[in-house]
Amino acid sequence: MEMKILERGTQFARPKITPNDFREWNRDNKPREMIDKVMDAKTAVKKFMKDGDIISISGCSFVRIPVAILHEVVRQGIKDLYVGCGTRSIDVNFLTDNGLVSHLDPGYIIGLEVLGLPKMSRKIVEQAVTKGEITLTEWDNASMAWRHKAAAMGIPFMPVRHMMGSDTFKYSGAVKVQCPFTDEEVVLVPALFTDVALIHVHESDIYGNARITSGAIVEDWGKVRGSKRVILSTEKIVDTEVIRKESDRTFVPYFYVDAVVEAPYGSHPGNMPGMYYVDIEHLIEYRKACEDTTGKALKEYYNNYVFGVDSFEEYLEKIGGKKKLKFLEDLEFLKVKPGGFS
Amino acid sequence: MSEEYNVMELMTILASRDIEDKKIIYVGTGIPMLVTSLAQKTRNLKITPIFEVGGIGPEMPTLPLSVACSRTTWRALRAADSAEAFEIAQAGFADYAFLGGAQIDKYGNLNSTVLGDYHAPKVRFPGSGGANAFASFAWKTMIIMNHEKRRFVEKTDYITSPGYLDGPGSREKVGLPPGTGPYKVYTTRGTFDFDEKTKRMRLFALNPKVTVEDVVENTGFELILPSKIKDNDPPSREELRILREEVDPYRIILGRGEA
Fold first, then answer.
1. CB contact (8 A) between residue B67 and residue A113
2. CA of A162: how far to CAs of A187, B38, B174, B194, in Å?
3. What is the average pLDDT score of chain A?
4. Is the pLDDT of residue B144 over 90?
5. B187 vs A186, B100, B203, CA distance in Å?
6. What is the model's pLDDT at position B1?
7. Cβ(A55)–Cβ(A198) under 8 Å?
8. SS3 assignment, position A186
9. Which of A296, A265, A270, A316 has its CA nearest to residue A97?
10. Are B130 and A142 in contact (CB under 8 A)?
11. Beta partners for residue A261, in sequence order
12. How much is the average pLDDT of A53-68?
């Protein structure tokens, strides 16, 4: 029996990074030695990111997102980015709002889920797509999860049993084949090997042995293990002894990781499960800035919170400092009532 | 005796009444979170909610703001990853999934991606999220939508999530797992199911104060109108109280029903 190609998505293309490219990269560029990788966000982004990179971002929507790193990407204006987007939200909006993206693989984009749809961000994407400044390859959250997983496994594709029959398939880069074992029709989704993964975690040692100590993992095993470079920001740097004592809790070992950036509250305004909750007021402030579809209010948001500060510490002062952060910690554990929904 | 309520409250309550006990339910962002949480609180069901990014069997102490937020893993049975969550569904454990959309057609095909031309969108929505996989894998897909003529259309601008595609047998023909598909649609005007033979949408029950003519007039395709149509009971005081006081006290989602 031979494997017959039955249908191709219109965005079908040869992947930019193949499994062999990835293997050879990992042979030649990833130190096997445990070396101190601690650096600040500015240095990490400068050293490990460049225009045109294929990237992925940790967490989901506004949960466990690497905001300290993303702010630095925006400040340095790293552009022409190709972004994998299984359930992305304000994190990818940071990039699209500032014209730094040339390709999206959605998943889910733009929306703030339950907290509504930021109009200006939507307008920017609609216009960029119409003008051809952003190209799209359509996927869904399951195919994105499996594309990251396939990359982590070092294989070229994953056979899956959804997408068929939909326009999600039609505008994707998937192919449908006849299964050589069962004769059933299956969809093959290509592995998404990335240049850089931007990942935020709870704990890491100085070498990049990292832990996610609470909350859903989202697609992050695949994102880390399927990326040529990994910039890891962490709430806290811990001793390697902490890792060794409970190795079953390690999220990824050091050799995947290229930079370790200490970034307390590094997911703000997002949630960091087990530490601090969503800053609802701040997200609503962002959404309200997006109500102004001239783009002026949104520019002010970035001038104030990103371009107007030199570091993430300075940003944390701006959003309300220790008092606000303590409130978000209490909110995570239901000790206080949330506010600022409207 | 019932009191005043808005359409969001009504749809949430009607859908939550239909949740079957002892089942695994995939919960997407927004109204599905309300529906599941309400069912847990009003009827004390032993259901297992699963969130697509990894939360399995959480207690949801407050309404989650995201499918990943810490409420979706609060005292959960497991915090997994997205691949695992979708693999559980692909392997046949997803009894129910709840979806919404901007457009639906007579076969229950849903659009949550784009209005107008895909390459020059009139409106770009967030896209599939977990919807396409839910609609492909769940044994029964429940849909919740505002019922307007521009949303209930002959042909959707885009099929994000497959319903019965072109009719009987077409899901199986394209290779989707057999025995799956849209089960019920809850709208601002009534409840709908799908005719076993034609797979076309059929009026099942009318919401309070809504007439058949009302429904037909606001539907852009030909509905199947059976001889017997049920009437949905209005929300009870207790359902409204729990929904307002315990499920969404800040009216984050319920407030949208006031527009």
1. yes
2. 7, 30, 10, 21
3. 97
4. yes
5. 33, 10, 11
6. 44
7. yes
8. strand
9. A296
10. yes
11. A233
12. 98
Let me know the angle formed at the C-alpha of B155 by B179 and B113, rounded to the nearest 5 degrees.
80
Smallest CA–CA separation between B63 and chain A, in Å? 9
B175:A141 CB<8 A: no
Give the three-state DSSP class for B211.
Answer: coil
- Which pLDDT does position B259 carry in this prediction? 59
- State the nearest Cα–Cα gap between B66 and chain A, in angstroms: 6
Residue A105: what pLDDT?
A: 97
Q: How confident is the model at residue A342 (pLDDT cuts 50, 70, 90)?
A: confident
Start-end of H helices in chain B = 7-17, 31-43, 82-90, 131-137, 170-173, 212-217, 237-242
Per-residue model confidence as pLDDT tens digits over B228-241: 999 999 999 999 99
Distance between B109 CA and the closest CA of chain A, angstroms:
9
pLDDT value at residue B143: 97
Q: Are A199 and A233 in contact (CB under 8 A)?
A: yes
With contact defined as beta carbons under 8 Å apart, do A233 and A261 qualify? yes
- Report whether pLDDT(A2) > 80: no
Q: Environment class of residue B67 by beta-carbon count within 10 Å: exposed (0-12), middle (13-18) or buried (19+)?
A: buried
Distances (CA, A) of A120 to A5, A101, A158, B17, B249: 41, 16, 36, 38, 29
Q: Which of A96, A137, A141 has the most B C-beta neighbours within 10 Å, making it the best mutation to test the interface with B?
A: A141
DSSP B63-107: --SSTTSGGGSTT-SEE-BHHHHHHHHHTT---EEEE--SEE-TT
| Residue where the block lists tokens 């994707």 | A172
pLDDT at site A268: 98
Supply the pLDDT for residue B120.
92
Please compute the mean of the pLDDT values over residues A152-156 and round it to a whole number: 98
Alpha-carbon separation of residue B8 from B12, B51, B145, B188, B253 (angstroms): 6, 22, 10, 8, 8
> Residue A1's pLDDT band (boundaries 50, 70, 90)?
low
Taking the C-alpha atoms of residue A269 and residue A140, their distance in angstroms, rounded to an integer, is 25
pLDDT of residue B2: 54
Handedness of CA A304, A308, A311, A317 (dihedral sign): negative
Question: Residue B65 is nearest to which of A113, A166, A334, comparing CB atoms?
Answer: A113
Q: Is A295 left (phi over 0), alpha (psi -120 to 50) or beta?
A: left
DSSP 8-state symbol, B247: I
pLDDT tier, B257 (very low <50, low <70, confident <90, very high otherwise): confident
Across the range B142-159, mean pLDDT stands at 97
B70 and A332: CB-CB below 8 Å?
A: yes
